């Protein structure tokens, strides 16, 4: 019997100043996607926004991106219609 895993949607504002920065975030999210914790993602260097969908928990996602050395300005949960925004530490 398979259990349903909740899909979460997040938008992160990540300080990225060059292709190397966005590449680092892309690499970490690609690995998470291969592991099954991320279903899809989009990294936009121009807007410095990273959109992520998947069963990954917010704290785990933040830690993965933080390990790239990039500063996370904010994290917004886009689950359902409720939008909760919290500044990352």
Automatic annotation (TrEMBL):
<comment type="similarity">
    <text>Belongs to the ATX1 family.</text>
</comment>
<keyword id="KW-0406">Ion transport</keyword>
<dbReference type="InterPro" id="IPR006121">
    <property type="entry name" value="HMA_dom"/>
</dbReference>
<protein>
    <submittedName>
        <fullName>Copper chaperone taha</fullName>
    </submittedName>
</protein>
<dbReference type="InterPro" id="IPR051881">
    <property type="entry name" value="Copper_transport_ATOX1-like"/>
</dbReference>
<dbReference type="GO" id="GO:0016531">
    <property type="term" value="F:copper chaperone activity"/>
</dbReference>
<feature type="domain" description="HMA">
    <location>
        <begin position="7"/>
        <end position="73"/>
    </location>
</feature>
<dbReference type="GO" id="GO:0046872">
    <property type="term" value="F:metal ion binding"/>
</dbReference>
<dbReference type="Pfam" id="PF00403">
    <property type="entry name" value="HMA"/>
</dbReference>
<dbReference type="InterPro" id="IPR036163">
    <property type="entry name" value="HMA_dom_sf"/>
</dbReference>
<dbReference type="GO" id="GO:0006825">
    <property type="term" value="P:copper ion transport"/>
</dbReference>
<dbReference type="GO" id="GO:0005829">
    <property type="term" value="C:cytosol"/>
</dbReference>
<keyword id="KW-0186">Copper</keyword>
<keyword id="KW-0813">Transport</keyword>
<keyword id="KW-0143">Chaperone</keyword>
<keyword id="KW-0479">Metal-binding</keyword>
<keyword id="KW-0187">Copper transport</keyword>
């Amino acid at each position: 019997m398979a259990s349903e895993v909740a899909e979460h949607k997040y938008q992160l504002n990540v300080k990225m100043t060059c292709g190397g920065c966005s590449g680092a975030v892309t690499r970490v999210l690609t690995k998470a996607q291969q592991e099954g914790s991320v279903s899809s993602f989009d990294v936009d260097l121009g807007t410095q926004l990273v959109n992520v969908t998947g069963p990954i928990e917010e704290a785990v996602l933040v830690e993965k991106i933080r390990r790239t050395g990039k500063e996370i300005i904010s994290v917004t949960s886009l689950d359902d219609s409720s939008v909760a925004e919290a500044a990352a530490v």
